[in-house]
Design goal:
Elements lengths: L3 H5 L9 H4 L10 H14 L7 H18 L4
Helix pairs in contact: 3-4
Length: about 70
């Protein structure tokens, strides 16, 4: 059974090319589950309106990238 986040955000194609996916470590691959959960929380915060799931998804991706960028590395 799908979670509401999985149901709301169906599989999306990547906007990145194969060379970007295998690119430098400074662009880590984000966990799709983490993106889905954060996007779902944004959707809930908006009152569960079904008007912009793509916006929620992109906002969640950007937020997680920002968090990863500010995380100190060894």
């Amino acid at each position: 059974m799908k979670t509401p986040a999985e149901d709301m955000h169906k599989e999306r194609g990547s906007r990145r090319t194969n060379s970007e996916v295998a690119g430098p470590a400074r662009d880590p691959v984000l966990d799709r589950g983490a993106i889905a959960l954060l996007a779902y929380s944004y959707w809930e915060a908006r009152g569960s309106q079904n008007d912009s799931p793509d916006e929620d998804w992109l906002r969640a991706e950007a937020e997680l990238r920002k968090r990863l960028a500010s995380t100190p590395t060894d």
